[in-house]
């Protein structure tokens, strides 16, 4: 089963985390993901939520809003993909992700397109 | 008074939950129904004991209340004559048990064997045993098995329904079926222990380890002639004896060969040794006895002052022949490095090099990192340690490995 692993961070808490150690652990984690085989891909980190722009179109009118998109402390901060037999292994990978200590990892199964 | 009554109810919940549940569910084979009835009995106890005092026999009291509620529920469901006869029989049996509580037979072992029945999905046997025998909640169990609580709850409900639908008998199986089923019971208990052992620093996990040991003692006391049950209990006690030594005062991970033997619990080790001797009286036969023997060889340095790696390697050879497990091969390699050197150990790992199961198995990469570093193959060691760090879920282990990798660069 393929899962998209969505990393949520509290930007403030993240800024307080020991940076060098954190990114060193992330480098190792990404390498483990890249080596884990087909269906896995290392994480991509997103810019802080204050740099996001939100676009909505309705009735021929375009609204452009500056982020953050939602009024919550935890924001989408990055993501990675895994391909494992089931949720137990997905939880294991979420546990390994260094961000699980500074935020939350949301596990979302990917809906596979139906064959034929 | 309130406080004393609450504590009495809690003690009864802790000590008698599995025994009462096993008794209530034995005839109906309806574990979920028996749990509901027992939960209501505990709720009544918490309400009435503080006012009316703790009964002289809390178990009998709880059983009587649970039985009433259970027979009501069954009456609502089935109204046929056969059903009435069934209820009559059950009521009489429970009535007798309620008035002479010493007669409540210990059916926990039978319930464990029901949970370990081939009809029950293999991965659910350990969680089901923990819930029905120990009364752990789905949330506790889910945390220990890394499964979301709702999923765990659903699976537990399904497994209990399966016991009822398939008419799984609550009985210790006959001799010829015992081996396979006892294996499943032992594996379930040991899986629970392993969860409680690896997830250190988490108090819920440590409690799980204690509960697993308690179940192990129960199996040994009820099946005293089964050597593998003794072997498994010994194995858990050896591991438990070293719990304090696995972390230094700062909480950092300490590998076995560097542990301070002063911190090992000698009393637990002696208990493990005695159990292993009893188990081995007819010669070692099963996986748990051999694994316990390996632990015995490891702790020999408590007595002799030096490790006994030759015996460890030889015992792993026996285990490997028995299980063909890549994990046994991996552990054997670590011991082999001590007797024949890192290159020989690395060569022995060739057999599992392309094994898919090893690709994201953290201990494999940690061992490879350690062995290649010993052999002076710096680049390989760096790569393996990096993978091991990335695959770690345990903070202390991760820090230890980062230290190893730093030492590699500096050395």
What does this structure look like?
The complex is a heterodimer of chains A (116) and B (411). Helices cover 28% and strands 37% of the residues of chain A. Chain A has 116 residues and is α+β, with helices and mostly antiparallel strands. Chain A has a single domain (2-109), classed as Alpha-Beta Plaits (2-Layer Sandwich). Chain B has 411 residues and is an all-alpha fold. Chain B is elongated, with a radius of gyration of 25 Å. Chain B is built from 20 helices and no strands. Chain B is 74% helix and 0% strand. The termini of chain B are far apart. Chain B has helices at 2-28, 31-52, 58-77, 81-99, 108-115, 122-134, 138-145, 149-165, 175-198, 203-222, 227-241, 266-279, 287-299, 301-304, 309-323, 326-340, 342-348, 362-374, 378-391, 395-410. In chain B, α1 (2-28) packs across α3 (58-77), α6 (122-134) packs across α9 (175-198) and α17 packs antiparallel against α18. Among the domains of chain B are: 1-106; 107-223, no CATH class. The chains are: A alpha+beta (116), B mainly alpha (411). Chain A binds chain B through residues 21, 24-25, 27-33, 35-37, 87-88, 91-92, 95-96, 101, and chain B through 145-148, 151, 356, 359-360, 386-387, 389-393, 395, 398, 402.
């Amino acid at each position: 089963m393929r899962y998209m692993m969505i990393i949520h961070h509290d930007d403030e808490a993240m800024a307080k985390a020991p940076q060098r150690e954190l990114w060193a652990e992330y480098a190792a984690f990404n390498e483990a993901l890249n080596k884990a085989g087909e269906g896995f891909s290392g994480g991509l980190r997103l810019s802080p939520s204050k740099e996001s722009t939100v676009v909505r179109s309705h009735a021929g009118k375009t609204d452009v809003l500056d982020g953050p998109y939602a009024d919550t402390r935890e924001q989408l901060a990055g993501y990675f993909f895994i391909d494992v037999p089931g949720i137990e292994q997905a939880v294991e990978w979420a546990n390994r992700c260094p961000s699980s200590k500074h935020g939350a990892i949301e596990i979302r199964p990917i809906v596979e397109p139906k064959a034929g | 008074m309130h406080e004393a009554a609450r504590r009495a109810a809690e003690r009864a919940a802790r000590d008698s939950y599995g025994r009462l549940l096993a008794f209530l569910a034995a005839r109906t084979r309806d574990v979920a129904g028996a749990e509901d009835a027992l939960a209501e009995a505990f709720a009544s106890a918490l309400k009435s004991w503080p006012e009316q005092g703790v009964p002289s026999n809390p178990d009998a009291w709880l059983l009587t209340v649970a039985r009433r509620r259970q027979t009501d529920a069954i009456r609502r469901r089935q109204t046929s004559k056969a059903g009435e006869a069934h209820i009559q029989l059950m009521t009489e049996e429970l009535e007798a048990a309620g008035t002479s509580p010493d007669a409540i037979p210990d059916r926990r072992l039978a319930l464990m064997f029901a949970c370990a029945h081939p009809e029950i999905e293999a991965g659910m046997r350990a969680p089901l045993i923990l819930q029905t025998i120990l009364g752990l909640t789905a949330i506790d169990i889910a945390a220990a098995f890394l499964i979301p609580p709702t999923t765990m709850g659903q699976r537990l409900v399904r497994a209990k329904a399966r016991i009822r639908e398939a008419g799984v008998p609550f009985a210790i199986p006959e001799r010829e079926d015992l081996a396979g089923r006892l294996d499943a019971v032992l594996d379930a208990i040991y899986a629970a222990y392993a969860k409680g052992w690896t997830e250190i620093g988490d108090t819920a996990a440590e409690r799980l380890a204690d509960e697993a040991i308690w179940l192990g003692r129960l199996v040994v006391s009820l099946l005293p002639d089964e050597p593998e049950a003794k072997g498994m209990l010994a194995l858990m006690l050896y591991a438990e004896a070293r719990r304090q030594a696995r972390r230094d005062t700062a909480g950092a991970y300490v590998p076995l060969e560097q542990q301070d033997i002063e911190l090992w619990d000698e009393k637990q080790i002696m208990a493990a040794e005695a159990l292993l001797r009893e188990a081995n009286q007819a010669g070692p036969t099963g996986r748990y006895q051999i694994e316990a023997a390996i632990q015995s060889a490891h702790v020999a340095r408590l007595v002799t002052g030096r490790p006994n790696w030759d015996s460890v390697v030889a015992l792993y050879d026996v285990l490997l022949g028995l299980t063909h497990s890549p994990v046994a091969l991996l552990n054997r390699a670590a011991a082999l490095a001590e007797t024949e050197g890192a290159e020989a150990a690395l060569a022995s790992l060739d057999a599992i090099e392309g094994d898919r199961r090893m690709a994201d198995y953290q201990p494999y990469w940690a061992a490879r990192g350690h062995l290649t570093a010993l052999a002076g193959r710096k680049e390989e060691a760096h790569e393996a340690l990096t993978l091991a760090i990335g695959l770690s879920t345990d903070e202390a282990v991760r820090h230890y490995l980062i230290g190893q990798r730093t030492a590699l660069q500096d050395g």
